[in-house]
Amino acid sequence: MSDKTEEQKEKPAAESKPTPQDQIVEVQHTVLIGEKEISYTVTTGTLILKEETENKGDKAGESEGEKPKASVFFVAYTRNDVDDQAQRPVTFSFNGGPGSASVWLHLGALGPRRVWMDDIGNLPPPPYRLVDNAHSILDTTDLVFIDPVLTGYSRAVVGEKAKEFLNFKKDIESVGDFIRLYTTRYQRWLSPKFLIGESYGTTRAAGLSGYLQDRHGMYLNGIMLVSSILDFGTADFHPANDLPHLLYLPTFAATAWYHQRLEAPLQKDLRALLDEVEAFALGEYTTALMKGAALTAEERAVIRQRLVRYTGLSADYLDRVNLRIEIMRFTKELLRDQRRTVGRLDSRFTGIDRDAGGETFEYDPSMANIIGPYTAAFNDYVRRELNFQSDLPYEVLNFKANEQWSFAQHENRYVEVSETLRKAITANPYLKIFVANGYYDLATPYFATEYTFNHLSLDPDLQPNIAMRYYEAGHMMYIHQPSLAQLKQDLAAFIKGAVPQA
Q1: What is the per-residue pLDDT across 70-118, written as a single tens digit (0 to 9) for each?
Q2: Residue 411: per-residue pLDDT
Q3: pLDDT score at 11
Q4: CA–CA separation, 228 vs 475, rounded Å?
Q5: φ, ψ for residue 126 (rounded to 5)?
Q6: Centroid of chain to Cα 330
Q7: What's the average model confidence in pLDDT over 314-335?
Q8: How many helices (H) and strands (E) does the chain have?
Q9: Which SS3 state, helix, strand or coil, does residue 351 take?
């Protein structure tokens, strides 16, 4: 006889969880680019990433299938007046962090709408607004902006562990699998394909160059790296690692030049100054730091005075830091006498701390300059113009994700993806690389990027695959309007040059 009560017998079985579904909307718009009106379709929404599963049991009804893992948000722009998509490039775009949504490249540089700021890139007073982007590259390539899981509106599905996506390997796999899914769903396998990433997005892009080739057989025409970092050893200020002190010096000098902290002869021409500083960094300065305690007092004095000349810092300060300038200390020290700090992302901008003491700034004034306008503009744009509805917070910068990020695959060594990129170019010798550098970028300094590519060990026959350009702005060089205009020209020329002519 059963022990169950009548109430228990009548209780229905728990309903299964609803299967996550794609959520897609489309709208039509036009934009004026280069005096030509471009008609385009915007596809906004989420695609469900699924993981293949196997029948591991012998229960009736079990079978192979796909298990939903994550809902990935994207915004795609496709030009309408295209007869043959096989001739039309498509570019997949993302930012970095890790933990950043794709909003920066989307509404700052590439998309048909951009956040309005003045020519310098100064913070405007709220409320903020969007304007048509006459420098969009939509005239040259279709665009797909991807928010990695836990950024933007992208989330792990119910029942899946969000933390699973917070690591170097899974991030590359999930973004790569989204690119494959989008390419398949929207029939773009025969289109010329490009990636563009910014900051940690360049790390992701280099990783994807290998993953897309090896896992999905997807060969790319080109990769565009904006404010690149492929070797973290070039940027980690840590005892016994003198490399960043050498590689940051030209950007320290550029920053001092911008704020008029150098002697008059050096203030005449930025590029001439940087040529001189680079030669010093690779020569006497490298030798001095390599000597360490073996450096004589006379040699130390000579190096100290050269650093005074190039950085605007005092001899006393340089002596106290043992001739080694650390980035966060520099942001506080350069304008300490004016009670101002300089930005990390863009050292053209200055901030005000509670006091002029302390070793580092309280906040990055260059980040404070952009976070408000971009956040407000996107949240309005996605609903008002793109008609996508979600009550989730749009995670522009997910600091929690950044803090929990795992680089377990690089345990006991610096994160490095330049070798992955070398192998990808070697296997696909038609893969072209474009690198955009900001002179005032203290997050990913241009000289460190040059060092990385100079140590790529790429075959001489493949060296022409690499193109580098420089802009008189910072990490997001496109907030500076002259740099945005030049970046558009450079990207468009690169894409056209990387696509075989029929």
Answers
A1: 999 999 999 999 999 999 999 999 999 999 999 999 999 999 999 999 9
A2: 83
A3: 47
A4: 9
A5: -70, 155
A6: 23
A7: 97
A8: 17, 14
A9: strand
Asked if 447 and 281 count as a contact pair (C-beta separation under 8 A), the reply is: yes
Give the mean model confidence (pLDDT) for residues 275-287. 98
> Which residue in this structure is represented by tokens 């070797």?
231
Residue 144 has pLDDT above 90, yes or no: yes
Rounded CA separation 389/154 (Å): 14
What value does the mean pLDDT take over residues 211-221?
97
Apex CA 338: angle with CA 332 and CA 344, to 5°?
30
List, in order of start, the domains of the chain with CATH numbers: 23-50+65-233+371-498 (3.40.50.1820), 237-366 (no CATH)
Tokens 């997949």 correspond to 92
Q: Using CA atoms, how far apart are residues 78 and 144, in angstroms rounded to an integer?
A: 9
Query: Residue 196: how many CB atoms within 10 A of its CB?
Result: 29
Report the alpha-carbon distance of residue 300 to residue 297 in Å, rounded. 5
Question: What whole-number distance in Å separates Cα of residue 365 and Cα of residue 353?
Answer: 10
How many residues does the structure list for the chain? 502
d(CA 43, CA 45): 7
- Is the predicted pLDDT of residue 10 greater than 70, yes or no? no
Task: For residue 475, count other CB atoms closer than 10 A to its CB.
Answer: 27
pLDDT at 16: 63
- Would you state the torsion angle of the CA atoms of residues 195, 199, 200, 204, taken in this order, to the nearest 10 degrees? 10
Span 44-80, pLDDT tens digits: 999 999 988 765 554 444 345 789 999 999 999 999 9
- Return the residue matching tokens 């607004």: 129
- Rounded Cα distance, 41 and 26, in Å: 7
Contact 341, 259 (CB under 8 A): no
Contacts of 185 (CB under 8 A, 6+ apart): 47
Residue 136 near residue 112 (C-beta atoms within 8 A): yes
